[in-house]
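Minutes, methods subgroup
Present: GH (chair), OT, SY

1. OT presented the first of two proteins processed in the latest run. Sequence and structure tokens recorded below as shown on screen.
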Amino acid sequence: MRTRFVSLAMASVLLVTACGSSTPSPSPASVAPGESAAAAPASQAAAPITLTLRYCWGGEGEVKAMEKVISAWNAANPGIQVKGISGSINTEEVAAAVAGGAPPDMVIMCDNGAVAGFAHDKVIMQLDPILDSIKADKSDIIPASLKWLTYQNGLYGLPFGQDTWALYYNTDMFTAAGLDPASPPKTPDELWADAAKLTKLNPDGSIAVAGFIPNDPDPNLDMTSNLFDCQYVDDTSTKVTLNSPACVAWFNWYKKWYDTYNKNDALVKLIATRTNGEAGLFDPGHQAMVIMGEWENGASYIPKNAPNLHYDTAPIPSINPDKYGAAFINGNAFMIPTGSSNPEAAAKFGMYLMTDDPSRTMDIQNASVPQLTSLLTDPTLTAIPHEKTFLNLVNHKDAWVTPMISVYPQIHDGLASALSNVLTGGADPQKSLDDLASQVQAQLDENGP
């Protein structure tokens, strides 16, 4: 979930044998304690359905939490037993497992970026008819959380924890610069003005403190595009609009920061010094404002690495006042691969994940934002410092997701490459986006949405 996905090319390695370690999830015994199998009555119930869940988490704490979730299901559902297999997953492995006819019954990927491509290529199953058959109730799922799993008006996955991004800012630096920590910037112009006051140079002209760096620690493309009214494709998902005036203005906004602050590669050199994760410049005070995800509030991140840092969080500034307070969201995608041995049983487990206890367990473990309306006011989550900012962001009526089209990987990678060329290679924003739009349009025309 923290790392953007890579390509969707088919690979020859089967998922179940290619990566991850099998972590057997305990299941109830099929006969009563003290009774031998031979003594079991001939009319005893049929053997339980056994499903394999391949999930993306591999850290000790993550696996322990997910196995707790699986064990609770197994204890309550002796007829459907789930075996978890942990470890990072990539798109090639899932596609190869389906192509080879031996997919896991369920998959949880730590990013939804592959969903549209999987749906387009029929690697995963559409869930609507399956969920209807088990009379699933999706009413507690935040509406925006289903958007990043919807392709061509069909639902192809369920959200299991999600990420969103906000502006983190050093409140001590705000105070020292004469800025009010209770009034973070709400527009790009305000962000520019505040950053100018917060930026500090060394005698040699290098940057001691960057007020803000638009493309660090992430290019922040999906996180900021909609706040500049830049839409990657039109409403029909058939025309690429990456080179619209709004998108060109958005790229020029990035360029302005580098034109002003990257003299003698000052920004590039400062970024090169960042260590210890995404907050590596923010934690030690070399960056006053930064766009980061909600997980940085988790116990393993800023509280551990910079326990004395005074900071706050706020929505990312927007040129449109109506969109201030909205944010980009994506997350962990539960999917049922084509060829699953029992899609209905898998869907029942998926809907179990859409309940409070399993969702809360993994959200706390991963310092994630819940996908359930019921958890937006959960005392355990709202008590986490700064968490309310992110809970409000995902529930905003204008929260947005990436375009759910098959060529999104090309859009994502192409934008990152084009931006790099503009910022440090001297490329023209308009031409760069014209070229990219033309390239992606050709792929969209050939492959369809």
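2. SY then presented the second protein from the same run.
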Amino acid sequence: MTDEVKLTPKQELFCLAYTGEAKFNATQAARIAEYNGTESSIRVTGHDLLTNTNVKKRIKQLTEQRLRDAGYQTDRVVKELCDMAFSDITRFIDEHGKIGIDPPNQPTAAIKELKWKDGKIGEIKLHAKCNAIEMLSKLLGMDSGKELHDITIMVSDGCEV
């Protein structure tokens, strides 16, 4: 840990749980850290802890350490999540309505699934943008978005989007 962050033992446990077992769920992390109360009050406690400057710093330290331990560079993870979060389905369709992939010019990390038809790409499915935005927001310590379903386009004898 580079910068020493002053936390109570319960706050430290919350941070460890939040970045570990609770998988970035503040309510679950507060429960693991043995904060008491009703479900509603534990949810508020979790939210309040996430707004605490020292808790945010510690969560950032722990997240970066876990990424390093796993062999990831924070900037690489952020780039991959940005590729998913800010992908545009139209970048995968040419002016003739055909699906195409040009890896140097397109964020291929955004692609969740490809389905082939007659030796060509017939369907492309991108990762859900809001899920990537939520993950990115949590990683960067920002408020998160809401869940969104995956985007799918199908092409047959022309273009159906």
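Chair's summary of item 2: Strands lie at 111-117, 120-126, 151-154.
Next meeting: continue with the remaining queue.
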